[in-house]
């Protein structure tokens, strides 16, 4: 899709204004599609890092933009769009996790009855990254990506989301606090504990700078 | 400042969000506190390690297209939009008022008639006259339907009688024909029997004559 050059240099706020001036006009639709094009990759990667599932990340990315399309008119402060869209994505992720937990609780009952639960403890060992099983091995960038994907899933959700927003999306602590609806100090505290937990996990798996081989 | 208190400020320092004052405090603390310095360096390395997971291409290309609007929605948007001209808003309000009046008129059973150059306007909560006219019409239609029904019933009965008569006549004709055939066959059988009997009598007579000729009877005493 060809994008108008002026739209590419427009701020999110300007694009939103253009869209809201005529949501069904070609100019409005183009402005919204520019917004989608701009935020598609960050949203997908945010959800992917939070949930760790690519297919779920694709579905939820789509849902994020549908929600944005429907509710954009309610956003009073256009400059808060960044926090707002992360808030939508985070809420959708949390809803999905809750849904999965509910389903899991049913299946755990079945597992307990069938006595298969004891086997899962053993099965978890196989989920450890390859590098953890072979500490001397130098890991490539792709392997490191898999390790980080697994490591992020190991830390609590509330810390994970803050780490992702900060490390991968460069949001300020105030923006994260706004998106998650908690105080800035709480966010900084979660960031500290999340980063510390990741440090410990990576140390346990023998992942440090020396283990990294950047195949560039 | 204690080591626990510095943890929060350390996060600001790590991500370059420190206020100048707190930055000075953190720098001073890290210079003097070896465990906190080690912790800061480790966290800094972890942060660097995390960066190794680069953004992936989602291979998604969402494109939104405008929703198809109904003619009513399009008209409403054109006439009642905030930036619509004054005449548009007036037209929309007038249309709304007309619709409202029509609705109220319907609720009040309003009747407007024009007879002999005069307009008549009547409203009533109960549509009495209309009900009378309707009931007369219903009675008339019901009567007509009754007559039609009787006619159809008679026609049907007549048709059934004719059908029965035709069947009986056909049956009688068939029985008569069968009787004729039977009588003819019986007559033919009797004729054959008579001919056969006659021929046997003739043959017996001839045999008797031959016998008498061949046998000489003694003279009577």
Topology summary:
The complex is a heterodimer of chains A (216) and B (221).
Chain A: H1 5-8, H2 12-21, H3 26-51, H4 54-71, H5 81-114, H6 117-125, H7 130-133, E1 139-140, H8 141-154, H9 157-167, H10 173-180, H11 184-204, E2 212-213
Parallel strand pairs in A: 1-2
Helix pairs in contact in A: 2-3, 3-4, 3-5, 4-5, 5-10, 9-11, 10-11
Chain B: H1 3-14, H2 20-32, H3 34-50, H4 71-80, H5 86-107, E1 111-115, E2 118-122, H6 128-214
Antiparallel strand pairs in B: 1-2
Commentary on this structure:
Chain A has 216 residues and is mostly helical. Chain A has 2 domains: 1-116, Orthogonal Bundle (Rna Polymerase Sigma Factor, Chain: A); 127-216, Winged helix-like DNA-binding domain superfamily/Winged helix DNA-binding domain (Arc Repressor Mutant, subunit A, Orthogonal Bundle). Chain A is built from 11 helices and 2 strands; from the N terminus they run H-H-H-H-H-H-H-E-H-H-H-H-E. Chain A has helices at residues 5-8, 12-21, 26-51, 54-71, 81-114, 117-125, 130-133, 141-154, 157-167, 173-180, 184-204; strands at 139-140, 212-213. A two-stranded parallel ribbon of chain A has the order 1-2. In chain A, helix 3 (26-51) packs antiparallel against helix 4 (54-71) and helix 3 packs across helix 5. Chain A starts with a helix and ends with a strand. Mean pLDDT of chain A is 83; it is low at 120-126. Chain B is mostly helical and 221 residues long. A two-stranded antiparallel sheet of chain B has the order 1-2. Chain B is elongated. Among the domains of chain B are: 3-48, no CATH class; 77-125, no CATH class. In chain B, helix 2 crosses helix 3 (34-50) and helix 4 (71-80) crosses helix 5. In chain B, 73% of the residues lie in helices and 5% in strands. In chain B, strand 1 (111-115) and strand 2 form a beta hairpin. The mean pLDDT of chain B is 87. Chain B has 6 helices and 2 strands, in the order αααααββα. Chain B starts with a helix and ends in a 7-residue tail after the last helix. The interface between A and B is large, with 49 and 34 residues.
